[in-house]
């Protein structure tokens, strides 16, 4: 059972990491908000199709109580998902990667704290030590000390730059989202928590966009408003979707990447929800947070960089902790 839980956690990490890579590439061709909205919307459509098939084939128990409770928790997890994915894609888009990846890799720490305090999950001292080794290994492996030194020596560079602020926001949001999904899965099964999370995340993404559009229209003739430079919250329109006719164009490829990212991320969250019913929410979250290693390895392959000593040591720590957890 433990081996199955660890195996599913690693699967979540691979799916999440692959989705994040594609979403980052998409955000650089589209906009961060559009990428987030497209990936979340595709995820919801895929979930509805999958849920319909699963209901008839596997007779999933959609009781009224489970439906209502999962919907209430889904409001919370949906808000966290909307904030988390938008903040994470934004952080990856503007960087610096040397700090964004290690920061977001610690989201499982927040999940573990919430799980122990609220869900009363029992972790033995030995398991807590192994989880700590896994998390520290991920942080070390996803950190580039050379890039970090370069950043710190830049004149006027601040460790509290916009990219870092977005990364911290994503870390807290992901930690809370994982906790909420795990708590809901223990009550209502593995499917409904993911469905409601996706539904409410789209709702929470749509509301600020509509408000921003209304604000822009109400002051369309004001010079101050028309010249103001703010973060774009525009929803994708039919013209954007039409670029799929030419998937090799910049915008067409961006939309295609966002769609595939949404499908992969959807599979990751479903697997995560299922895994929380096999292993504890805290351990599942700790293993799944190794998605940062997937992003890091992709970047190193792209730029043909070698692993630094701290990264090699981090990978050894992570793998050692993972193997011991599976025993």
Verbal overview:
This protein is mainly α. It has one domain. Helices cover 79% and strands 0% of the residues. It contains 15 helices and no strands. It is globular. The mean pLDDT is 82.
Topology:
Blueprint: H1 2-27, H2 32-58, H3 64-94, H4 97-104, H5 107-118, H6 125-141, H7 145-152, H8 162-188, H9 192-218, H10 223-227, H11 238-242, H12 250-275, H13 281-288, H14 291-303, H15 309-326
Helix pairs in contact: 1-2, 1-3, 1-12, 1-13, 1-14, 2-3, 2-9, 2-12, 3-4, 3-8, 3-9, 4-8, 5-8, 5-13, 6-15, 8-9
SSE pattern: HHHHHHHHHHHHHHH
Quickly give the structural class.
mainly alpha
| Average of per-residue pLDDT values | 82
What is the strand content? under 5%
Distance between the termini: 10 Å
Low-confidence stretches: none
| Global geometry | globular
Assign a percent range to the helix content.
Answer: over 70%
Largest sheet: none
What Rg, in angstroms, do the CA atoms define?
Answer: 20 Å
């Amino acid at each position: 059972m433990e081996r199955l839980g660890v195996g599913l956690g690693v699967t979540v990490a691979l799916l999440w990491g692959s989705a994040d890579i594609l979403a980052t590439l998409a955000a650089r061709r589209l906009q961060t908000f559009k990428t987030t909205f497209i990936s979340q919307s595709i995820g919801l459509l895929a979930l509805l199709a999958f849920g319909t098939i699963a209901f008839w084939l596997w007779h999933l128990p959609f009781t009224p109580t489970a439906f209502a409770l999962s919907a209430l928790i889904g409001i919370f997890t949906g808000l966290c998902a909307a904030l988390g994915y938008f903040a994470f894609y934004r952080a990856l888009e503007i960087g610096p990667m040397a700090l964004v990846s290690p920061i977001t890799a610690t989201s499982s720490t927040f999940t573990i704290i919430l799980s122990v305090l609220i869900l009363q999950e029992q972790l033995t001292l030995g398991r807590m030590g192994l989880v700590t080794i896994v998390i520290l290994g991920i942080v070390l492996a996803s950190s580039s000390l050379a890039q970090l030194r370069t950043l710190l020596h830049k004149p006027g560079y601040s460790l509290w730059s916009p990219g870092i602020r977005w990364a911290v926001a994503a870390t807290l949001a992901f930690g809370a989202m994982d906790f909420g999904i795990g708590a809901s899965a223990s009550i209502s099964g593995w499917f409904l928590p993911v469905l409601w999370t996706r539904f409410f995340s789209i709702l929470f993404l749509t509301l600020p966009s509509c408000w921003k559009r209304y604000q822009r229209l109400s002051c369309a003739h004001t010079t101050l408003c028309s010249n103001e430079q703010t973060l774009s919250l525009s929803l994708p329109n039919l013209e954007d979707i039409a670029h799929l006719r030419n998937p090799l164009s910049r915008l067409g490829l961006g939309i295609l990447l966002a769609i595939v990212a949404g499908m992969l991320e959807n599979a990751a969250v479903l697997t995560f929800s299922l895994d929380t019913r096999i292993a504890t929410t805290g351990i599942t979250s700790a293993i799944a947070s190794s998605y940062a290693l997937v992003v890091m390895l992709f970047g190193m392959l792209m730029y043909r960089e070698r692993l630094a000593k701290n990264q090699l040591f981090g990978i050894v720590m992570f793998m050692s902790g993972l193997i011991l957890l599976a025993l």
